[in-house]
Design a protein that fits this description.
Length: 666
Amino acid sequence: MEVPFLRTFLPELELVASPFAAVDAVVGWGLKPTSKAGRNRAVAKNLPYLALEDGFLRSIGLGETGAASLSLIVDDIGVYYDATRPSRLEQLIETAPDWCDPAMHARAAALIARVVASGLSKTNMGGLLDRSILKPGPRILLVDQTAGDASIGNGLAGPESFAAMVRTAKAEHPDAQLIVKRHPAVAAGKKKGCIADADLKGVTLLDADVRPAELLAEVDAVWCVTSALGFEALLRRLPVRCFGASFYSGWGLTTDEVQTGRRGVRRDLETVAAAALIAYPRYVDPVTGLRCEAEAAIDRLISLRDRAERLAGYWAGVGFSPAKRPPIRRLLNGPRTTMKYFASASRAAAKAEETGGRLIYWAGKETAEIAGVAATTSAPVVRMEDGFIRSRGLGSDFFGALSVALDDQGVYYDPTKPSLLESLIEGGTQTPEMLARAKAVRARVVDAGLSKYNLAGAGRRPDWPGGARKVLVVGQVENDKSILKGCGDIRTNSGLVEAVRADYPDAFLIYRNHPDVMSGNRPGMLDASAIHAVDAIADDFDIIDCLEACDVLATLTSLSGFEALLRGKAVATYGRPFYGGWGLTQDRMTYERRTRRASLDALVAAALIEYPIYVTPEGWPCEAEDLVAALIAARNDPPPEAPPHQIARWWKGMLASLDRRPPPAY
């Protein structure tokens, strides 16, 4: 039994895999044939049997394809889909007056609203509904299931139940459109369905994996045997008719063709949802590896689903160096993502056009050939660059990026044309919730002293003299695209120093080289006259300590200007960086398109939350907050000797993560 984070789900147990070990209980996967030996042993030895099953808000992708589950059910009485006997879920619903108080009832109501508003379902990777199949008038959804599913026989049903469902629907609703939905595993070709082909005459067959929320929004009622889709329909207040005994039937919420003989008490939807979504399952956040509540799991599922949808499709890559390819595969990894690299831009574009995919390339490595093909292809073009919180080491030293920006308009460092980042800031659509989130991220970054590369400093702080105004001049790699695209007359580090000295004649001028220049990897050293114009060199200090100690930061287009803004410092720009032109900086150059006066939190929201995508050092897709937390946790550890090249297929289980963290204390 391979279950990611199994020990985190079951912290109260010491798990052993040997069938010969002396044990106090047997753990198995529900009532599947693979658990039969364990169940028999439990009976023979008079041991408790703990049945494990996926929760009702599970994953991004099918279990049959290995998608990692965020929820797990541990049932010490039975299992929820076995209506022949009680289960822990059934007991929770029956005894709800003992534990479902008004606060829990309200919590369940809020949870239902969140699930419905977000369109979440169990596996969350269906495609868009083809609305051309819909006909005017009433519509009834008939839900098929996979043949041999344990919930059918144990739900007091069988193959005849599906035939009866279709037959009854045709007889009682001759004027309604009957839509038969195959199970996603059937649509994926993994399993067979239960509704016979002969019964499909006169109905509309939906033999594709579509988003349940989209489908449920278009029907007037849902009929099923024991499918959990009936529960999702109840959450959306749809009438549900059951031809088997499902866990949500028998409580007065459904029209039931089968009775268990045990239930019979009426429970409202919030009570059943509180039991099924809060009290019964256990949840783990795969990014932190820790147990979490249902609400946090929902937030994580939404972010994972949105990311998977953003990355879905074919990506034809060109211009990526061999060193960049493994980290890029980790960043773009997803259940419906295909990434292929090409040596030729024209071949990559042709493949993108053929597959309905996208052409993607590393913006900073754009060649004349790539630019020409990108300008003429009919395929969408996406430019990739490092994110603004990147890694724990230099890219030029081959430390893989933990964040990248994906831009289908331009690229953030090229102000000669719009970019997605510029559009996000100019559009000003950040919600109050997003701005609050950005404020919290900014505070965490500043408090922790994080930067783009997070290199350890020398351990001593600057001791520059007090009194005089201290201006930190930050050098850059002089062949950097942000300088080539974003600067005017001043485009060298020496020219920048001379301009800053002219603007701040009485200031104490400090100069800091770019790490790639100091390492000898890239050009940008000062000439002799510029060296004489500065009062101190800050190469031996941590960049964050330099920012904290200065009064003004002066730069061409360096990201350090953005990092200074995060810390409330005055910033003077001599080029046109992405953070300039919004009223937050002293700009020597003009920005014709940037008309909005943006707040710092709006800038942070766009640059750190909306624009990039992130992965943790272990390879899990994550949000800005997660990477910040991971970098803080690892701040005192030396970076790895070599860049990690493994591709962490989060949607295939991340089995290597099973034991990477100790179980939390409860």
